[in-house]
Amino acid sequence: MQTALLKEQLKPEQSNYEAKRFRQTTAFAYKMLLPSLLFIVVFIAFPMFYSVSLAFQGFKYGVPTGEFVGLQNFIDIFTKPTVAPGFYNSLGLTMQFTVAAVAAVIVISMGVAFLINENFKGNSLIKVALLLPYAIPGIASAVTWDWIYDANLGVLNGLLVKLGIIESYLTILSNEKFALWAIWFAYVWKMVPYSSFLLSAGLSTIPSSVYEAARMDRSSVARTFFKITLPLILPVLQLALVVQTIFALLLHFGLIFVMTGGGPGDATRTLPWLIYQESFTFTRFGRGSAMAIIMSVIMIAFIYIYLVLLNPERQKAQR
Amino acid sequence: MLNNSISGRLRLKKLVIILASVAVLFYVLAPIYWIVVSSFQKEDALNDKPPHFFPTADVFTLDHYSFLFTGEVPEGSTIMIQAQYTMSGTLVYPSIINSLIIALAVTVINIVIGFPTGHIFSRFRFWGDSKLFGVLVATRLLPSISILVPMFILMQKLNLYDTKLGLIGIYSAITIPFTIWILRSYFKNLPIEYEEAARMDGCSYLRSLVKVVLPIAKPGVAAAAIFAFMTAYGEFIFATVLTRTIASRTQTAVLASLASGLSVSHGMVSAASVLAILPPVLIAVIFRKQIIDGLTSKLGAS
């Protein structure tokens, strides 16, 4: 598109010279981009194509046979629950987790964003405190929450008993009812700060005069939020949703690794964990790759929904 | 009457702010408080029911930390815990060093390579520029688990399995697109005149980058570097699959296997977590301005 624009602007007598310069710039730019592109081709593009090719290959004893089997791996996953057990369960868990995690992160972050955008003493303290969960590596936070949730010695159980909410210690992570939601809570804790800062950036672009006008009109708090705030921060909200969905689909993996290992039963065996098991526990690389591709498609579908549903005029907003 | 309602409203707002602040601080800090406090408690105090919410001096100990650094098993440990201590506990400190080396290397690569690339994308129009940029940014949408299997095979073929170098390569590839993204939008808000003047004076492109662009772009570069560091330091999936020995095992991989072990010294695991948390938290606190600017300005949002 930019090339077209460039051509349009050129006068005929200049175009030869300009075209030559454009070619020179292109050559120079690619020379400078070479190192970056090299990293990405070797470590992302190549493995990605390889992964796609694995998904269409047959396997024997964990070794690709090189034989093209078409969509067989995909058909197995979707239609043969005995050959690929638990796929629909994992799919359902992943959807539940992703929707619940994104919703919780966005709602809490919105509240926190309003708070840190207020001018008050202690505001910077809260900002620094918020940086901590963001900075703590995922696994260290998983270990922390694992210890907090501990069924015998955990502080959460201790606290709930002390407050009189429960009578005796509960199993949390080895309880089918709680396990996924315990992971969800720990996950949300880690992810709220990032979105809070992002959304607070969006909120700070709204001029205060807009709110004053709303107050003059005696607009209720809820009405002001839905009719004024939300539309104005839509682009940022969209970005937050996209980023959080990508994170939620994937980044709970470490929590599951440390806290439940997919259990109890298959109560926390979400798609990333299933892919990991298929590939590295059962060395069914073909099926693992096929599932990974399905997961990418889900991710793209989510993003597409946000982009289309939330902002039909997104082209206008971007420019 | 009107005045009253306004001051009432202000008072209400103040109250809401205070309550919300307390809630946020508790929410954010309570888990961190607990892991830090646990790391300084004697093992038998950690086994008490109910737990010591506010531990006193008589249960305080530095044993867990001294073990992580010296390998000295605290007296009175059970045999199971002793075994766990000596098997995986001694790996904690070296693995943190591994993670730091890897993360620093990735940060340097991001600055050296990502900085010129971001600049090229912000200042030059060339064939395929916007499409290429779109593809680069889109790589961030790729779930890393989808390239895990081929990466495992590739690393073994390249003899990079279980090496720091392999992880450095992968993490660089993951972080560079984000660095380019941040820096491109950052450069767009910088005046172009200085660079043009430098080029007029016959300064080469790379020289003008280092001498002219870098000094004014420092905040943006710092933010990009910090994000790259954080990502590389905390990455888990590739680290746990692509490393095996302490030659390359990172803190995330060691902590994860430590915590999912059968018998666990909660004090030692807590101390290990606190140690692992320390470098990125220090960076976050020291560079809080750059990070918050990076997260709240158009940098992260555009």
Secondary-structure topology with pairs:
The complex is a heterodimer of chains A (319) and B (302).
Chain A: H1 2-9, H2 12-55, E1 57-60, E2 63-68, H3 72-79, H4 87-117, H5 123-135, H6 138-149, H7 155-162, H8 179-204, H9 208-216, H10 221-232, H11 234-250, H12 253-259, H13 271-281, H14 285-310, H15 314-318
Antiparallel strand pairs in A: 1-2
Chain B: H1 2-39, H2 43-46, H3 63-70, H4 79-88, H5 92-123, H6 129-138, H7 148-157, H8 164-188, H9 193-200, H10 205-234, H11 237-242, H12 251-259, H13 266-286, H14 288-296, H15 298-301
Helix pairs in contact in B: 1-13, 3-13, 5-8, 5-10, 5-12, 5-13, 8-10, 9-10, 10-14, 12-13
- The number of helical segments of chain A is 15
Secondary-structure element series of chain A:
HHEEHHHHHHHHHHHHH
CATH architecture term of the largest domain in chain A: Orthogonal Bundle
Number of domains of chain A: 2
Please give the count of helices of chain B.
Answer: 15
Q: Tell me the domain tally of chain B.
A: 2
- How far apart, in Å, are the first and last alpha carbons of chain B? 46 Å
Terminal Cα span of chain A: 13 Å
Q: State the helical fraction of chain B.
A: over 70%
Instruction: Kindly report the average pLDDT value of chain A.
Output: 84
Strand order of the largest sheet of chain A: 1-2
| Structural class determined from secondary elements of chain A | mainly alpha
Largest sheet of chain A: 2 strands, antiparallel
Beta percentage of chain B is: under 5%
CATH class of the largest domain in chain B: Mainly Alpha
N-to-C series of helices and strands of chain B: HHHHHHHHHHHHHHH
Q: Could you tell me the strand content of chain A as a percent range?
A: under 5%
Which descriptor suits the 3D outline of chain A? flat
